[in-house]
Design brief:
Elements lengths: L3 E3 L2 E4 L4 E3 L7 E3 L14 E5 L3 H8 L4 E4 L4 E4 L2 E7 L7 E7 L2 E5 L21 E6 L11 H17 L3 E5 L5 H8 L7 E3 L1 H12 L8 E2 L13 E4 L15 E6 L8 H5 L3 E3 L7 H11 L3 E7 L1 H10 L3 E4 L16
Length: 333
């Protein structure tokens, strides 16, 4: 097999490298900068040139080489290339070819375009390793115009009633995508330090984002009435967010599609925004690869693999340590 599944991660013997390994290895090819895929401790890293700045920001001084989308590099006996995954800026599917046999590791991906990431491009292969974070038919994403209207109407109503709008979103990718949906004429946009630090990295790469005001110890909330405040999920309900009162709270996640999840998060509003493929996106992406052999990782792996087998694929579950989009207080995403 071109790729095998080892305790350290997904391994290519022909090139002697791993893809998104979860244990320290010598050579790691990384699909994107989220913490469950780009982990510390590897001797050498390879990623897209667009993903590199965020990886350095998050991992510090690492030995990191880069490649642009579409370029092919020979590593040992394997030919490797990176292709847009549409998940977050710089995210990639990794194509590995050995002796004419092609495997693609999807990492995390989203098939619908947004205003932030390079759009997803299907890659023809024989074997496709896919995430299925939202691998149930109930997960169907609204279009960005619908979500933008929902968020901006909520914000405008709160501002008119002298309330802050506190919105939880992961600091890499989700927060910036939400920012592309906002109408800055409603009021100021304040950001938690974790979000603003990522904003700075992306802005330095030329990513266009609306003007934001970072929240510092010197920030007087009263000076920004009606503001929308973007913060990572863990900041909601913390001492940090108590300076913004009165407030309405919201959460941006694909999990908001499930009834009862908003109650679990104890927020006033849930907005269905995900950087992962929904049910239709997963099925479309797999069909476009032309692959017969599918390996389902993090998500509803058992249900999704069973569905794929019913559709005529040769599908199996593969245990990994990837987490996808979670509802806990961490920021793996």
């Amino acid at each position: 097999m071109v790729l095998t599944f080892r305790p350290e991660g997904i391994y290519c013997a022909a090139g002697d490298f791993y893809i998104d390994p979860w244990k320290p290895v010598d050579r790691a090819l990384i699909t994107h900068g989220h913490a469950d895929h780009a982990r510390p401790g590897h001797s050498r890293y390879l990623a897209t040139d667009i993903a590199a700045p965020v990886m350095r920001h998050r991992l510090g001084e690492i030995t990191l080489d880069t490649m642009p989308y579409g370029e092919t590099r020979r590593i040992g006996g394997a030919s490797v290339s990176f292709h847009p995954a549409g998940h977050v800026p710089g995210s990639a599917q990794i194509r590995v070819e050995v002796g004419g046999e092609v495997w693609v590791v999807s990492g995390d991906y989203k098939t619908t375009p947004d205003a932030l990431s390079t759009p997803f491009e299907p890659v023809t292969c024989h074997h496709f390793i896919t995430e299925c974070t939202f691998g149930l038919p109930v997960f169907a994403w609204p279009n960005d115009a619908t979500v933008a209207a929902e968020i901006n109407n909520w914000w405008a109503t709160n501002a008119a009633e002298s309330r802050f709008s506190l919105l939880g979103a992961y600091s890499l990718g989700k927060a910036q995508r939400v920012m592309t949906l906002l109408d800055p004429s409603i009021g100021p946009i304040l950001t938690h330090g974790a979000v603003e630090n990522t904003n700075a990295v992306l802005r330095a790469q030329g990513v266009q984002l609306p003007q934001t005001i970072p929240v510092t110890p010197d920030t007087a909330a009263s000076a920004h009435p009606g503001a929308l405040v973007l913060a990572p999920p863990g900041a909601l309900g913390s001492n940090w967010e108590r300076q913004f009162r009165p407030a309405s709270t919201g959460f941006a996640s694909g999990w908001m599609r499930l009834r009862g999840v908003r109650r679990r998060r104890s927020v006033d509003r849930g907005f269905v925004v995900s950087d992962h493929a929904d049910w239709a996106g997963l099925n479309d992406a797999i069909a476009e690869t032309g692959a017969e052999n599918i390996y389902a990782t993090h998500g509803y792996t058992d249900i999704f693999a069973r569905w794929l087998n019913e559709q005529g694929y040769n599908a199996q579950e593969v245990p990994t340590e990837f987490t996808g989009e979670t509802l806990d207080d961490g920021d793996a995403e």
